Fold this protein.
Amino acid sequence: MKKHSNRLCGVVAAALLAIPAAVVAADEAKGPEPFVPSGSNAFMYPGEPVAEDEMRVTIFGSGYGYVRTDQADQSIFVELGNGDAFVFDLGEGSEANYMEMQVPYSRMTNLFITHLHTDHYGSLPHMYTFGPSADRWTPLNIYGPSGPTPELGTKYMVEGLKQFTNWHVVSFNGIAVPESDGYDINVVEFDYTLNPGIAYEKDGVVIKHFPVAHSIDGGIAYRLDWNDLCVVIAADTRPTRFYYENSQDCDIVMHEVGPAPSVFAETMGVTEERANSMIASSHTLPVAVGKLFELTKPRLAVATHILANANTVLPTVDGIRTYYDGPLAIARDFMVFNVTKDNITQRIGVGSGSPWVHTEAHRDGEPKYRDDQLTSDFILDSVIPPCKEAKDDKCY
Ligand SMILES: [Zn+2]
Ligand SMILES: [Zn+2]
C-alpha cells in the first residue's frame, strides 16, 4: 500500500473546510476527484462496473440506532474487480439503499455481521425473505461471531430468524415465487476470541476477524485483503490495541466514532460527565479515533456510525484532528470509494429514488411451483373471479 501524500492531506482538509472543489481539484480532470465530493465527476450512478484491479467500497448505512431518511443503520458493501461482493452488516434501513443503487439480491449472498445489535442486522429479515422473489435463488451465507454462550451467538440468531420469518417462507417458496434454495441459510460462526481468526479465504480474498470491546463479549471487526488492497470494516468498539494491530498497512481504515460528549449531553439531557462515561463505556470518543488513525496512518481514514448533523460533525472532526491530520472522510450514506494501488477516490452514489428491484441472475428451465395448496376452500370461494369464469354477476 502507498502512504498518503501531503498534497492529498491538503485536498482533504480543503474539502472539509468547503473550499470550492474546482480550486483544489483542477489537476484531477480525469476520473473521479480524490476526496472532493462535488463536481461533475463526483457522482456514481447505478450499474457502473468495478475495474479489474480495483476495490470499491460503498457505505449503505452510516448511522446507528435512530434510523433517518438520509442515514440508515450500519452497512458497508465491498466489491472487488474479480466479481466478488461482500455485505458487512445490514442495519435497519440499509437494504433500501442497496436497491437505490440497483444492487441485485444475487450480489448480496455473503453477509458478514460484526455483532448482534439490531442496528447492524435489522434489515436482514426482509432481505432474506424477499431476495428469492427477485434473483437470489442460492442459499444466503451468513458469517458472524460466536457469543459467550451459545444463545448469544450468530447461529442462535439465525434459528430465531427462521422462526420469525416462517409464515413468509412457507407462503412464498414454490407458491408466490418459484421454488428455489434461496431460503436456505449457511451459517458460519467463528470464535470471537481469536485475534485474528480467518473468517473467509477464497480466490485470493482473505477476511480476518478480531475481537472488539463493546457492551458484552461477542463483537468482532473485520479486515479484508485482496490484490494488495485492504479495508478494515468499522465495528462498534471502544479503542483497543486489537484494532490498532489489525489495521496496520491498510488502505482504508474505518472506525466508529461516538458523538462529542458536549453534543450528546445537550441532545440527551444528561451532564457532560455522564455523556462521557456512557460513550466511553461502549464506543470511541473522537479524540481516541484520531489517535488510532494517527497510529495506523491509512491512505484514507473513515469515521462512521455517527448521526451526522452540523452540530455533531464539526466537533467530531475537531476531536479526530487532535492527533490525526491525514486524509479523512466522515461517512454518509451512498459514499463510494474506489481504491487502486495508485489512487483512492470519493464520490456519492445517486439513484432515482423510486427504483424497481434490479435482477441480474437468470434461471435455466421452467420455474417450479408446489402443487399442494395451503389456502382453504372457504377463502378461495370468496375470491371474486373474472366474468368468463363466474357463476353469477359478482365478477370483473
Ligand atoms: Zn451500532
Ligand atoms: Zn452495537
User: Anything to note?
Assistant: The first strand starts at residue 43 and ends at 44. The domain at 6-201+306-362 is CATH 3.60.15 (Metallo-beta-lactamase; Chain A). Confidence is low (pLDDT under 50) at residues 1-30. Residues 293 and 324 are 6 Å apart (CA to CA).
